[in-house]
């Protein structure tokens, strides 16, 4: 079917109008869009007047071709810009100082690019596909290093940032190098990299303080945190870090002040509340410590460390039930929490619940077979349960781990003495006193041994050494007074008992 002449011309007019609409939507060109729209209207008017000539038609066809070419060109550019916009946005160069450029780029990369990499929306540089020529540029090295850093490939990132530094000794590159070394726990090298930036921003001063803190250089760390707070005095994280420095320097009251100050800006920081409780425990202010632990627990109810420390605080207040409750809660959340298991065992031991104490000491040794304290307390629990041979095996295990521990030798000597193995008993006590001549309990036990082997006069000297090394050793005082009385040293025994009344009635 042949289309009438005017029909072709009307279709051409509609194409112009359509082109105008397409250009306005995709090409962001209002003028060109308006022209095509206007041409379409003019063509319709001319058709109605039958005044369309061949030359005019040719002109219109050329204009259609130009329009289609323009749309294709802009569509291509649009597609290309969409593919590159993510990388451009991450690596854009802002007209600020070098350090601000890096931190803005770095923070944006962490928040946006990392999410896109994980979700598969954006595939970062494929190192193997990058030409050697492009790698000659320091900026290319830097960009590759940054992307590798975001992916967590710190060693590879470090390799490329070193390449960048070789080509351009840039502050940004040293900052990124410091971050990589920090994550690799190469703290001394990270510190050197930060110093080479020769910059003193808040972020760098704070991170420098963190590194110095990790290195145990607390005075220098404190100075660095002070410099950071001079720039940004209300940063809760840096205030926390300063408080940690003060804690390690033994300046507990000052640490509490800065923890409190930090809470003004971040009152729901469970870590800060927890740390305050720990300091108050050290200062013997257990009731106050409990207040802060419980506040922290409301924010972080499944934190095993907070539950564990509440157990310690209540134990210090001799509240057995509460202490037991919090130790159990901590262990239920983390059955392999060594300290919680051990402390619960000790709590039960102190309350003469030796069977249950043995269970938790056994569990402690199974968590860490090289924990000599667990084996020593297994021995003590077995001793009080009357299982003396087994207790010796446990003490031998603790001595195998820590052969220079005077207390372990002393306790093993007690078990040998109960079994009547006098030679091994005296040898154990002598070894304990050789390792620590000021072991008051070993001197006291040696005195008891000497009485049992009928060397009663010699035992008095042993009890005197026990009292000399620990004036408040009540067992040694009682044993001395009793043997003096048994030997009919009436005046000396009377004076001895008077001393007990004076010393221990205070």
Structure commentary:
Helices cover 78% and strands 0% of the residues. By secondary structure, it is mostly helical. The chain starts with a helix and ends with a helix. Mean pLDDT is 80; it is low at 1-5, 71-106 and 108-135.
Give a short overview.
The protein has helices at 5-26, 30-49, 54-90, 98-119, 138-150, 154-167, 171-183, 187-197, 202-214, 218-231, 236-248, 252-265, 270-282, 286-299, 304-316, 320-333, 338-350, 354-367, 372-384, 388-401, 406-418, 422-435, 440-452, 456-469, 474-486, 490-504.
Q: What Rg, in angstroms, do the CA atoms define?
A: 41 Å
The arrangement of helices and strands along the chain is HHHHHHHHHHHHHHHHHHHHHHHHHH
- Give start-end ranges of low-pLDDT stretches: 1-5, 71-106, 108-135
The proportion of residues forming helix, as a percent range, comes to: over 70%
Distance between the termini: 124 Å
Give me the number of helical elements. Answer: 26
Structural class: mainly alpha
Major sheet summary line = none
Q: Calculate the mean pLDDT score and round it.
A: 80
Strand percent estimate: under 5%
Shape type: elongated
Instruction: Give the beta-strand count.
Output: 0
What keyword list fits this structure?
single chain, 506 residues, mainly alpha, 26 helices
SSE layout and pairing:
Elements: H1 5-26, H2 30-49, H3 54-90, H4 98-119, H5 138-150, H6 154-167, H7 171-183, H8 187-197, H9 202-214, H10 218-231, H11 236-248, H12 252-265, H13 270-282, H14 286-299, H15 304-316, H16 320-333, H17 338-350, H18 354-367, H19 372-384, H20 388-401, H21 406-418, H22 422-435, H23 440-452, H24 456-469, H25 474-486, H26 490-504
Helix pairs in contact: 1-2, 1-3, 4-7, 5-6, 6-7, 7-8, 8-9, 9-10, 10-11, 11-12, 12-13, 13-14, 14-15, 15-16, 15-17, 16-17, 17-18, 18-19, 19-20, 19-21, 20-21, 21-22, 21-23, 22-23, 23-24, 23-25, 24-25, 25-26
């Amino acid at each position: 079917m042949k289309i009438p002449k005017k029909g072709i011309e009307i279709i051409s007019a509609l194409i112009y109008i359509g082109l105008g609409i397409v250009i306005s939507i995709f090409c962001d060109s209002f003028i060109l869009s308006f022209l095509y729209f206007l041409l379409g209207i003019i063509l319709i008017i001319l058709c109605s007047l039958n005044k369309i000539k061949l030359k005019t038609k040719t002109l219109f066809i050329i204009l259609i071709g130009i329009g289609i070419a323009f749309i294709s060109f802009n569509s291509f550019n649009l597609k290309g810009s969409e593919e590159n916009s993510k990388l451009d946005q991450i690596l854009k160069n802002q007209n600020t100082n070098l350090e601000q450029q890096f931190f803005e780029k770095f923070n944006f990369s962490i928040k946006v690019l990392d999410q896109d990499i994980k979700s598969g929306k954006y595939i970062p540089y494929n190192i193997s596909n990058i030409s050697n020529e492009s790698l000659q540029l320091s900026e290319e090295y830097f960009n590759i290093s940054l992307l590798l850093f975001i992916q967590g490939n710190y060693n590879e990132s470090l390799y490329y940032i070193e390449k960048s530094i070789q080509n351009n000794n840039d502050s940004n590159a040293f900052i990124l190098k410091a971050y990589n070394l920090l994550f690799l726990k190469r703290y001394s090298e990270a510190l050197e990299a930060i110093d080479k930036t020769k910059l003193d921003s808040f972020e760098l001063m704070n991170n420098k303080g963190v590194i110095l803190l990790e290195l145990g250089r607390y005075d220098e760390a404190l100075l660095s945190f002070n410099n950071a707070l001079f720039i940004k005095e209300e940063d809760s994280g840096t205030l926390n870090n300063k408080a940690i420095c003060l804690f390690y320097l033994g300046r507990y009251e000052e640490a509490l002040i800065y923890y409190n100050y930090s809470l003004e800006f971040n009152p729901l920081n469970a870590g800060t509340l927890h740390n305050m409780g720990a300091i108050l425990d050290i200062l013997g202010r257990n009731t106050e410590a409990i207040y802060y632990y419980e506040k922290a627990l409301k924010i972080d109810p499944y934190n095993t460390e907070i539950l564990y420390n509440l157990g310690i605080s209540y134990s210090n207040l001799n509240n057995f039930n509460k202490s037991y409750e919090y130790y159990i809660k901590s262990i239920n959340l983390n059955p392999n929490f060594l300290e919680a298991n051990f402390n619960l065992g000790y709590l039960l031991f102190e309350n003469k619940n030796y069977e249950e104490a043995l269970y938790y000491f056994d569990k402690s040794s199974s968590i860490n077979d090289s924990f000599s304290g667990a084996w020593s307390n297994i021995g003590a629990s077995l001793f009080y349960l009357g299982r003396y041979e087994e207790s010796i095996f446990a003490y031998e295990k603790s001595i195998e781990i820590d052969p220079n521990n005077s207390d372990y030798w002393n306790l093993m000597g007690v078990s040998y003495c109960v079994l009547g193995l006098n030679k091994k008993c005296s040898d154990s006590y002598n070894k304990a006193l050789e390792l620590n001549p000021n072991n008051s309990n070993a001197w006291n036990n040696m005195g008891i041994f000497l009485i049992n082997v009928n060397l009663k006069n010699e035992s008095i000297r042993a009890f005197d050494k026990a009292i000399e090394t620990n004036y408040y050793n009540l067992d040694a005082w009682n044993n001395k007074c009793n043997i003096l009385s048994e030997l009919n040293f009436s005046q000396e025994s009377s004076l001895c008992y008077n001393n007990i009344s004076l010393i221990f009635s205070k």
